[in-house]
Amino acid sequence: MLKNWHVVAAMLVAPILAILAWFAVDWFVAERPHAARPGQDYPLLAKPNCRWPSGTCDLENESFRLTLTPMSLDAAALRLRIESRFPLSGATVGLAPAAGTASEPVAFSPADEQATVWSGTLPAPRGEGATLQVVVNADGSRYFAEVPVVFLTSE
After folding, report:
1. pTM for the whole thing?
2. Angle value at C-alpha 122, between 119 and 125, nearest 5 degrees
3. Are 18 and 10 in contact (CB under 8 A)?
4. What is the DSSP string of 19-57?
5. How many other CB atoms are there within 10 angstroms of residue 93's CB atom?
6. What are the C-alpha distances in Å from 45 to residues 40, 50, 99?
7. pLDDT of 81-120, one tens digit each?
8. What radius of gyration, in Å, describes the C-alpha atoms of the chain?
9. Cα–Cα nearest to 131, from 102, 88, 111, 89
10. Is the dihedral of CA 9, 10, 11, 17 positive or negative?
11. What is the distance between the alpha carbons of residues 136 and 43, in angstroms, rounded to a whole number?
């Protein structure tokens, strides 16, 4: 079998062609990142630190990134801080009793002159299924996310 040079050449070329085909399909089919368009809504991806008691929650969509940090948490109220790389024109957060349910939105206010840090007070979360529903405005676009409240405490 290995005396036939056609078989040897095929065994050497086939893996190379398979790898090239993999990259070619990605090049032609993959969605290219584009700049946010004013008036459009974009989802934010919750990073892994949002899923356990870490004290912070990072949300991102390409280069747009938010960091949620609890400033204080007691039995009656939760004071939350939102930090962004880019200036925000508005920030609203609601505390829903369970994922996918409606919440009472609370408008946050800027905590610095650059409008990259926002803070506000929400009612304290009740139960383990509670989620934060975050909506921020930046450059005419809206970014949104829904994250569980488990990150509010740190171990």
Report:
1. 0.77
2. 130
3. no
4. HHHHHHHHHHHSPPP-PPPTT-EEE-EEPGGGSSSBS-E
5. 22
6. 16, 10, 15
7. 999 999 999 999 999 988 878 888 999 999 989 999 999 9
8. 23
9. 102
10. positive
11. 11
How large is the greatest C-alpha to C-alpha distance in the chain, in angstroms?
81
CA distance 110 to 1: 74
pLDDT tens digits, one per residue of 43-94: 999 999 999 989 999 999 988 999 999 998 887 898 999 999 999 999 999 9
Q: Please give the full DSSP string across the chain, using - where no structure is assigned.
A: -TT-HHHHHHHHHHHHHHHHHHHHHHHHHSPPP-PPPTT-EEE-EEPGGGSSSBS-EEEEETTEEEEEEEEEE-SSEEEEEEEESS--SEEEEEEESSTTS---EEE-EESSTTS-EEEEEEEPP-STT-EEEEEEEETTEEEEEEEEGGGGSB-
What's the CA angle centered on 82, arms 76 and 86, to 5 degrees? 165
77, 123 in Cβ contact below 8 A? yes
The single-letter code of the amino acid at 148 is: P
